[in-house]
Amino acid sequence: MVPLSFAGHEFLALSEAALFWPARAALLVADLHFEKASWFARFGQFLPPHDSEATLDMIEMLVERTGAQAVWSLGDSFHDAGGAARLDRRARERLTALTARLDWTWITGNHDVGMVATPGGWRCAEKLVDGIWLRHEADPHDPSPEISGHFHPKLRLSLRGRHVSRRCFVGSPTKLILPALGSLTGGLDAGHDEIRRVMGPGAAALVPVADRLLRFPLR
Known about the structure:
Largest sheet: 7 strands, mixed
C-alpha cells in the first residue's frame, strides 16, 4: 500500500487496483463486472467461467488486508442489468455475506443502470463524502474533487523492446480515476484522448510499486 494524497485527504493506493481511505476505513473499487463470462456465454462466446469467484477472492483479500469496514463500488459492478440474478449460489452467498457485514455502497454505472436488485448494500447514482464526489464516470464540467472508474485505465510502455501493460490510476488536481478490479476487464490506454479530455491539464498515470507511487505525465 502506497500513500496517495488527493483533495486534501490521505489514501493508500493498492497495486491490486483498489484504493483505501484510512480515515473512513473504506475500500474503494471500480468496474468489478461480475458475471461478465456468463453474459458472453449467452451469445456463444465462452470465457473462463469463474470470473465472479475470482473477483470475490480479491475483494475478500483486500478487506482482510486493509481492515476495511466499508466498500464503495464505483459502478459497473455487474456486467449487465441481469448480472446479479445470474450469480451462482456460492458466489451469491459470498457477496451477500460481504454486504451484510460491511457498509457497502453500489454506485450505478452504465452497465448496471437497469438492475432491479443487488445482493445487499445501498445503491445510488453518486455520493458526496468529505467534499469528494464518488461517481462512475468523471464529469469534465464539474470542478469539484471526484473519484471515479469507467475507463479501466492501463499504462502501456515499451521497455528495451518489450511492451509492458499494467493497470494504473489516473490523477489530476481534482480527479482520480481508479483501474478496473474485475478479473475479466480489459483496459484503455491511460493516454487515450478520451481520458485526457475528462482529466484536463496536469494529469498523470499513477502506478503503486513497492513503497513508491510512480508518476507518468500524460502528454
